[in-house]
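Consider the following assembly input.
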Amino acid sequence: MKNAVGREIPKEALAVELKNGRKYEPYHGKGYRDGKYIKKAGPTSRIYQKPQESKLLPSIRDAIIATGLKDGMTVSFHHHFRDGDYIVNMVMKEIVDLGIKDITIAASSLGSAHDPIADYIEQGIVTGIQTSGIRGRMGDVVSHGKLKTPAILRSHGGRVRAIEEGDVHIDVAFIGAPTSDEYGNARAVGGKSDCGVLGYPVVDSEYADKVVVITDTLVPYPNFPPSIHGINVDYVVKVDEIGNPKKIASAAARMTQNPRDLMMAENTAKVMAATPWFKDGFSFQTGAGGPSLAVNRFLEPLMDEKGIKMAWAIGGITGPICELQRKGKVGKIIDVQDFDVAAIEDIRTNPNHFEMTASEYANPANKGAFVNKLDFVVLAALEVDIDFNVNVITGSDGVLRGAPGGHPDTAEGAKCCVIVTPLTRGRMATICEHVVTVTTPGDCVDVVVTDYGTAVNPARKDIIEALDKAGIKHVPIKELQEKAYSLVGKPDDLQWKDKVVAILEARDGTILDVVREIKPYEN
Amino acid sequence: MELKAVGTAGTLESSDVMITLEPRDSGGIDLTLESSVLNQYGRQIKAEVLASLERLGVKNAKVIVNDHGALDCTIKARVECAFYRGCGCDMDGRFDWGGVIR
């Protein structure tokens, strides 16, 4: 069956069983589930009526045993420690050593820090993966068909929806926390592995049957105000190190000096300034990649020129937006994740820099997340096709190596979604006829800015009109794609086997696309 | 001009290709291809290298192509350079740069 972005969704993908019995549907277009209802799936939670002095257990192993984790269960993790995370590998090693098998990992994201999980997949111990990001060896073994069930890849908002709706049920959540007290009140600031905010695992703490907080810095009770509330936590474990602080937060993200990136960033800022939403009190999110980040720099003079200020900025937060706020040009920063040391430092000291949960940020099934009020989002892409579909998950070899993250959530929510990307990367045509995998549907993408020109989605007549009025040149996206192919040649189609190795969920839980097992290139 | 020794040209940098030509008496062209864009461009890279070798009159050689996303123009230039080096040409202007391959 073909879905609304023209992708063939095979029966075997539609037949994948969700925990709550909900049946998968193909993607129907943006806003499809608006106005419908969900019954939230609550956890089975133990009563702790008799007072206990402490929830501390001596080791992760003891905690796993105490939770009653068994074969076939689902465990969850968060990705605030990014490439510096030790929690996933530490916990999974103990689970494997205890002989527990047939485990599904449902993480907010996974990265190259988690290469050892690839072995557990190959050994058949980990049989399910539900995540936003999948990279490194894990991406490789999944793409080669080694995971027993198709991986389910979701946006950050889509994950919260899936947990709340009961598509996935978390038996045990393992939540790494920079600081915690003996009752599991956990915070992101302080400690040895400060990650600024803990917005992603809040839903895990509320919907998992058992919740274990793992920290390397125990602090006196009560550790307030907490991100993870002790009332949702069963056990607390103190370990030596929860992560490598150097890899948790990169040093202050450096502004790109690449003239191509700077030109694209400047053109992006000009596009934004030409639209009707660029007025006093506007809201904004941008990514941490080179050209996206550089947009901050070019936005400031345009704001000054018009005498306007930004009311709020959201997202993965980096230093440059905090700096803009210090200059009095941004009202509030609402933060779901910190990407650099500057952002982490800022939330500690700045009263107008707030933490939010993944649900508040991007969940399509709550009563209105921040993305729904967003004016502009500037995003990157691996590929964009002539129907404005974006791929951020599969590389040019068809192997999984990325993450939808908040891309589909912000793209659907924002009034104006701008993708900024070079026309080609090496021999890869970024603007192509058909993306390898659709991760953000074209009906949510409004403008594409490249180093060879800007294209506007023909569905957005209002933006076309605004750019024409401002004298900003734009071309049909087909022209950009033809230019790209004239430089690098037309790529051959990738060769796939039949097996579906991953399902790309749209944020509303319909199926946007599938990834099949890659067929090795035949010389 | 004839390929007499091993000729190499190019680097392992991104957007470049390293070509190694090794002469042999018979057996035609034996091409080994590695590329960062193998799945989407492997066929085209192979065709480009073989066409270049044909224009240069190379009939028998072991050819190693280590590509990191080079464009066709780069591939042509590197094949040509590797060939001339393998022919023992020195810098006395005896070779026709850009003349044989168009």
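Chain B touches chain A through 19 residues (CB under 8 Å). Ask yourself how this observation constrains the way the partners meet.
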